[in-house]
Specification:
Residues 7-18 have a biased composition (Polar residues). InterPro entries: Glyco_trans_4-like_N (IPR028098), Glycosyltransferase_grp1 (IPR050194). Residues 1-42 are annotated as: Disordered. Pfam families: Glyco_trans_1_4, Glyco_transf_4. Residues 58-215 form the Glycosyltransferase subfamily 4-like N-terminal domain. By secondary structure, this protein is an alpha/beta fold. It folds into two domains: 2-212 and 386-406, Rossmann fold, CATH 3.40.50; 233-383, Rossmann fold. The protein has eleven helices and 15 strands. The protein has a nine-stranded mixed sheet, sandwiched between helices. α1 links the parallel β3 (47-53) and β4 (75-82). The chain is globular, with a radius of gyration of 22 Å. It starts with a strand and ends with a helix. The relative contact order is 0.13.
Length: 407
């Protein structure tokens, strides 16, 4: 965890008196149109957190499971998220849902209405807002005069998703850079996200608490892929088939590399985004579709290396997931992903160009990758474990709550 201080706090952020929470208030269990869910009333010894998600797809949903690790530290967690995303949570009993078929005005209205209802019924002592569109209920909370402590996490700043510095990029930086400062604490999931916030002078007090993942499945296997010869190299890609994840760059790079290194094989885990078609796979590519969380560790463990050609990321969870299985990673030098790799010891990084990736893949050997496995696994234990995340996050939240109460 790293705290890089307060930058340009607005007057709104400097108000340090939160609204009173009333012990003994009942927690609502009813339903309203567009809003559903019931929340158990936590014990008096816990601090009630309401986690607010406009969507829980991808890493945001996985993050909610991580936040459950705060329970032993004296926190209780309820998660507001779309009904369609409820199944993402490991513990769906924590879910409060709202109707969301697709992003748009109706879905945002349902989110705000559900948020206001739970604000009244649950009376949270801490709010945790996730991703750009949750800045709307955060803004409304502050406009109402409510100063209950709030945390914001971008899970990759929207500014990082734009490849050009035009008017759209400037508007996004202005909006997220100012509204994030309405939170009392901004959690960055990686050093790269924190660097973006510093570079563009985003408001608020920012800290880094790197993402983490659970330990691997104890029954994970290492024989999913064929290894007929000692020189066979099984590469793995895990992710959506969209512009961000860069599969469109990996496939031609792999084809080029395989023309000079016939030992390479590429295994694809994932699926196209809605409305798009399955890409054409060349020789030596095996498509596995989506793999469930109970099976994915067997794919990581069977691979010689994971390839991450993303154009942007916050902190891609596939990297610590690979490490927990002792699998080295090959990452693009984008969004600070190279900082997740001990070059030549837990993997390699490359400029995000087809030719550069092809050159690197053509030179990888199974023996060199096998030597990296012990340090890759050690990196998971020391840097990306759930326990480390829980301790750092709890420390930050306790400091925030203590400071607000002292004020």
């Amino acid at each position: 965890m790293r705290d890089f201080g307060t930058v340009s706090l607005s007057k709104t952020n400097m108000v340090n008196q939160r609204s009173e929470n009333h012990p003994g208030d009942a927690v609502g269990k009813g339903r309203t149109a567009g809003v559903s869910g019931g929340v158990e009333k936590p014990g008096d010894a816990t601090t009630r957190i309401l986690s607010v998600c406009e969507t829980a797809q991808g890493g945001v949903g996985r993050y909610q499971d991580l936040l459950e690790s705060l329970v032993p530290f004296g926190f209780s967690l309820s998660v507001l998220l779309p009904e369609s995303d409820k199944g993402i949570l490991r513990d769906a009993t924590r879910a409060i849902t709202f109707a969301r078929n697709r992003r748009g005005p109706v879905a945002m209205w349902n989110l705000v209405r559900a948020f206001w209802r739970q604000k009244r019924l649950l009376r949270p002592e801490l709010y945790f807002f996730h991703s750009t569109f949750s800045l709307l209920p955060l803004t409304l909370l502050r406009l109402s005069g409510d100063r209950t402590p709030a945390v914001y996490c971008a899970h990759c700043w929207a500014a990082n998703t734009l490849q050009t510095d035009g008017w759209k990029s400037r508007i996004i930086r202005f909006v997220e850079g100012n509204l994030c400062g309405l939170a009392d604490l901004v959690v960055n999931v990686s050093a790269s996200d924190a660097d973006t916030a510093q570079r563009f002078a985003y408001r608020g007090r920012h800290v880094i608490v790197e993402n983490a993942v659970d330990p691997p499945e104890p029954e994970a296997r290492a024989d999913r892929f064929e290894t007929p010869g000692s020189s066979r190299v099984n590469l793995l890609f895990v992710g959506r088939f969209d512009h961000q994840k860069g599969l469109d760059l990996l496939l031609p790079a792999y084809d080029l590399a395989r023309s000079s290194n016939s030992d390479l094989r590429l295994h694809i885990v994932g699926a196209p985004v809605r409305g798009s078609e399955l890409p054409v796979f060349g020789e030596g590519v095996t498509y596995h579709g989506w793999v469930g969380p109970g099976e994915i560790d067997s794919y990581y463990r069977s691979a010689d290396a994971l390839v991450v050609p993303s154009r942007w990321e916050g902190l891609p969870l596939v990297v610590p997931e690979a490490y927990r299985n002792g699998t080295p990673v090959i990452v693009a030098r984008r969004s600070g992903m190279h900082e997740l790799v001990d070059e030549g010891r837990t993997g390699w990084s490359f400029p995000l160009e087809i030719e550069a990736l092809a050159d690197l893949l053509s030179r990888v050997g199974r023996e060199d990758l096998a030597k990296m496995r012990p340090l890759a696994e050690e990196t998971y234990r020391e840097r990306f474990s759930r326990g480390r995340f829980a301790e750092e996050m709890a420390e930050n939240l306790r400091a925030l709550l203590g400071g607000k109460r002292a004020g």
